[in-house]
Specification:
The complex is a heterodimer of chains A (179) and B (181).
Chain A lengths: L1 H13 L15 E4 L4 E4 L4 E9 L4 E3 L12 E5 L4 E7 L4 E5 L2 E9 L2 E10 L7 E10 L1 E2 L8 E12 L18
Chain B lengths: L4 H22 L19 E3 L5 E3 L7 E7 L4 H17 L4 E7 L5 H10 L6 E3 L2 H6 L8 E5 L5 E6 L4 H12 L7
Parallel strand pairs in B: 3-4, 4-5
Antiparallel strand pairs in B: 1-2, 3-6, 6-7
Amino acid sequence: MTNRILCAGILLLMSPAAQPQDLGRGRAWVSMVPAALTNIDRGQPGTVNLQFRVARGFHINSNQPKQDYLKKTELKLDAPTDIVIGRITYPPGQDRSFPFAPKDKLSVYSGDFEVGVTVRPLHGVLPTKYAIHGVLKYQACDNAACYPPKQLPVTFEVKVLKGQGPRKKNPAQSPHAHS
Amino acid sequence: MKRDPIILIVVAMVISIMLVFGIRRVHHAGVVPPGKLQGKAAPDFSLPSTTGQTMKLSDFQGKAVLLNFWATWCEPCKVEMPWFVDLQKKYGPQGLQVVGVAMDDASPKDIAAFAQKMGVNYPILIGKEEVGAQYGGIDYLPSTFYISRDGKIIEHAFGLVSRSEIEANIEKALGQQVATK
């Protein structure tokens, strides 16, 4: 009897019919692969590559959609003091047409894609680990419907190393040096 | 009767999780599941239109209403809009009113410009989350509700459907024939 109740409970919980209104709301269409810790020297720029995965059967607009009314995919980051976020490099979108508009091409990401983030710790920063937080803004569609814009929380860590410290000028090598 | 305490603990945990999920769903911003709206009176609302007027759903009492939730960033929604224009022309004289509700964060000016570019010949209202919640939360765009002349939701469709399906639902809303599925 107890086993039957247990099985019925688990089946009810797992049943798609149990959560029809939750299909869109609260669901994430994009996930982030946990990023490996990246070592970066103080004062030097380093690149952190963030891997994202779009759920099978869905697509999101690229960072440069072909129409300005479409929501572009965009990474927004908040860095700790003395850590500078530089250029964010997005992959080019895949030009694809979909059953809802077979003649049109949309610039999209599907499957896996990678975003590169240039991080530069300032010279004075304490050499240790730093967590950088942000969000990936995106808007997903499938072959027949679109879903409201979402923000995926993004977190990654960088380890700031002492490095060589700030370079000192060698007047002997300077073309502008005057003796 | 001897009971295995591990099984009892697991059963208690499953029941607790189900209760938590159930409570969360019931309290989710007052959202009514769309399936439960079928056959019920369409929730009335009052929204500003792109022309600056405030419109209520009840303003269209006595008409069959095709209530279409859409957004400028929704490509499948764009496919349906020219169909709605044609169908408004075809069935308008028989009592159809197409009403678009933009669930968009674009400005009313941009929404109006987009609708004009699409040649829309029916009112476009600027949507609000609360109105979306009244209609099940609008998790998918396009989402279309078909409302009969007596103000009841007789059909709904999520995502892009065929023009013939839309037309069959309009005829059903107008009471001309019962569409067979």
